[in-house]
Amino acid sequence: MPQLNPAPWFMILSSTWLIYTIILQPKILSHLPTNNPTNKNNKINTNSWTWPWTQHSSTNS
Questions:
Q1: Does the pLDDT value for residue 9 go beyond 80?
Q2: Integer Cα distance of 42 and 37 in angstroms
Q3: Which residues in the chain belong to E strands, given as ranges?
Q4: For residues 12 and 5, what is the distance between their CA atoms, to the nearest angstrom?
Q5: Which Pfam families did the record assign?
Q6: What is the pTM of this model?
């Protein structure tokens, strides 16, 4: 069974990684985002949320 012989594993792993890097690197580097983020001046709501499990009430003593 050839998978039990670990001698060629490093060569197979490194050659596969090198091939994928050579093929995928130009594709990744040439990628341009389709939706560029825009600077929107929307009013930000600064009110905090009130969660029922974080409210401390004196009736639960």
A1: yes
A2: 14
A3: none
A4: 12
A5: ATP-synt_8
A6: 0.39
Token couple for 12? 């197979």
- For tokens 């060629």, what's the residue? 8
Q: What is the per-residue pLDDT across 16-47, written as a single tens digit (0 to 9) for each?
A: 999 888 988 888 888 877 777 777 766 666 67
Sorted by sequence, the CB contacts under 8 Å of residue 2 that are 6+ apart come out as 8
Identity of residue 59: T
Mark 5-38 as b/e (b = at least 16 C-beta within 10 Å). eeeeeeeeeeeeeeeeeeeeeeeeeeeeeeeeee
